[in-house]
Automatic annotation (TrEMBL):
Cofactor: record remark: Binds 1 FMN per subunit.
Keywords: Decarboxylase, Flavoprotein, FMN, Ligase, Lyase, Magnesium, Metal-binding, Multifunctional enzyme
Species this protein is from: Tenggerimyces flavus
EC number(s) stated in the UniProt entry for this protein: 4.1.1.36, 6.3.2.5
Similarity remark: In the N-terminal section; belongs to the HFCD (homo-oligomeric flavin containing Cys decarboxylase) superfamily.
Protein name in UniProt: Coenzyme A biosynthesis bifunctional protein CoaBC
Cited function: Catalyzes two steps in the biosynthesis of coenzyme A. In the first step cysteine is conjugated to 4'-phosphopantothenate to form 4-phosphopantothenoylcysteine, in the latter compound is decarboxylated to form 4'-phosphopantotheine. Catalyzes two sequential steps in the biosynthesis of coenzyme A. In the first step cysteine is conjugated to 4'-phosphopantothenate to form 4-phosphopantothenoylcysteine. In the second step the latter compound is decarboxylated to form 4'-phosphopantotheine.
Length: 228
């Protein structure tokens, strides 16, 4: 398999991976952001190169560019949407490993917002960003495009981590959803990941705790079997 560089099962395939947390600027010096490092997306990009794919990495991360990958840098969720939809037009698979900001400030202020006195503070009105994964999955540029999403979930009174994952997979219309349970020590800043990969066909593939590279190869294994 790919981890050993023995299989070129993605040779001749074009894949798109998104990575990192997008930033939504309020003014020239301030933004709303999130904790995504981009490491899982970069691991996916590197693993796809090893397996012979031609890789476009739409990145909102500051990590160093991986070798052999076409990197398209983006800042906001709307930038990421444009770059992903454009690259998806000629792709065989898209994996949305990024954490696009769900909301952005309703308006961007061209100059730095200043304090006007000692006590008052402005309110920030937010509006919802487009959902890139749902748009792409529900409106595929080619019928054979394989679409993969990620979800970091916690269980709560309305359902378990996997219940939330199943519901999200259906809502998004993706082929695969990589579900992580988030807790104090798992997910964001860690170098390791544990996940269950849910398939729209009802499949459930558990991936034990291991490196992000290992998880990346498990994801490409499932993508490869779905490529026509
Ligand atoms: N995603 C996306 N566009 C967005 C938000 C999310 O494409 N505006 C993608 C993410 O890259 C990920 C998947 O959708 O692959 C699920 O992201 P998540 O934040 O879990 O989903 P949301 O629909 O935003 O739900 P939640 O309210 O739980 O944040
Ligand atoms: Ca979200």
């Amino acid at each position: 398999r790919g981890a050993a560089g023995l299989s070129q099962d993605l040779s001749g395939r074009r894949v798109v991976v998104s990575a990192g947390g997008t930033r939504e600027f309020l003014d020239p010096v301030r933004y709303l952001g999130n904790r995504s490092s981009g490491r899982q997306g970069y691991a996916l990009a590197r693993a796809a190169v090893v397996r012979g794919a031609s890789v476009t990495l739409v990145s909102a991360s500051a990590l160093p560019e991986p070798a052999g990958v076409k990197v398209v840098p983006v800042v906001s969720t709307r930038d990421m949407r444009e770059a992903v939809l454009s690259a998806a037009a000629s792709a065989d698979a898209v994996v949305m490993a990024a954490a696009p900001a769900d909301f952005r400030p309703a308006e961007y202020v061209e100059h730095k917002i200043k304090k006007v006195d000692d006590v008052s503070a402005p309110s920030v009105v937010l509006v919802q960003n487009p959902d890139i994964l749902a748009e792409l999955a529900h409106n595929r540029p080619s019928p054979g495009l394989v679409v993969v999403g990620f979800a970091a979930e916690t269980g709560d009174a309305s359902g378990s981590v996997l219940d939330h994952g199943r519901a999200k997979l259906a809502r998004k219309g993706a082929d695969l959803l990589v579900v992580n349970e988030v807790g104090a020590t798992k997910g964001f800043e860690s170098t390791e990941n544990e996940a269950v990969i849910l398939g729209a066909d009802g499949s459930e593939t558990p991936v034990p705790l291991g490196s992000k590279d290992l998880l990346a190869h498990h994801i490409w294994d499932l993508v490869a079997t779905r490529l026509s």
